[in-house]
Amino acid sequence: MLATQWLANARDVMDKIESTQMDNIKQAASIMAESIAAERWVHTFGCGHATLPIEEMYPRIGGFVGFHPMIELPLTFFTNIVGGMGVHQFVFLERVEGYGKEIMKSYNFDPRDTMWLFSHSGINNVNIDIALEAKNIGMKVVVLGSAEAFKDTKTRHSSGKKIFELADVVVDICVPAVDASIDLKNHQDKIAPVSTIAFVSAVWMIVATVAEILVDRGKKLYIHPSHNVPGDANARDRLDAALSEYKRRIAGV
Fold first, then answer.
1. Which DSSP category does 115 fall into?
2. What is the domain-level CATH number for residue 225?
3. Residue 17 belongs to a domain
4. What is the DSSP string of 134-199?
5. Which residues is 42 bridged to in the sheet?
6. What is the spatial distance between Cα 11 and Cα 26, in angstroms, rounded to a whole number?
7. Domain count of the chain?
8. Cα Rg for the chain, rounded, in angstroms?
9. Is this prediction's pTM over 0.85?
10. Cα–Cα distance for residue pair 9/48, rounded to 1 Å
C-alpha cells in the first residue's frame, strides 16, 4: 500500500537525521541560543515549500519568541497556482540573482543575529543572495537542506557557491534530490515528497535544543500556549505576554 510506503520513507529520513545530524543540530542550536539570549533574532527564510518550516516554527503553539519569519509573498505560491503569483512566476523569481539582496534592504540586522535558511537544493539565487548578505553583515548562517544529495550539482549563482558552502553550520535533512519518494506505475515522475516532513522534524529538534540551552542558562522563554484547552484560565494572558515581548523586540527590525 502506497500510504504505508510513504510512512516508511518518512521514517527512514527522520532516522537518518537522528543518526547523522545530532552534532550539527547541537551546533546550530548553540548559535541560535546566543542570538536569542542577547535579545536578538534568529531570522528565518526560504522559498516555495521551504517557507512551510518557517510558518510551522513561529508564531505557533509551543513556539517561543526569538525567531523572526521573513516570508516574501511572491516566493510562496500556495495561494495561487496559475494567474497572479503563480508557479511560473515563482520558478523564475527564485532564480533571479539580486532579488535576495533587495529583500535584505527591507530589514535591520545586527551581527549578533543568526540567519536560518531553508533550501532543498541549495543552488537557487535568492537564498544564496540572502546568505551572502548575512555573512557580509557578520551574522552566523545556518542552513537546512539536502547537501549530500546535491553535492555534485552546480550552483546557479555567479558567486560559484551553493548555499551549503556559505553556511557556518549545515544540517542535512537527508532527502534524495528528487524529493518525491514513491514510484507510480505508468508514470515517469514519482509522487509523495518527504522534504517538508524532514524540514519540520529538524526544525523542532533544533528549536527544542535551543530552548533547552536557554532554560539551562536561566533564561525566561515567552512561549505561545494553547488557548483552546478548557480550564486554562490564563492562557490568553500568556499569549498576550508573548506577543507583547515579540512586539518589543521587533521594534528594531
1. E
2. 3.40.50.10490
3. no
4. HHHHT-EEEEEE-TTTTTTSPPSSTT---HHHH-SEEEE----TT-EEE--TT-SS-EEE-HHHHH
5. 67, 114
6. 21
7. 1
8. 19
9. yes
10. 22
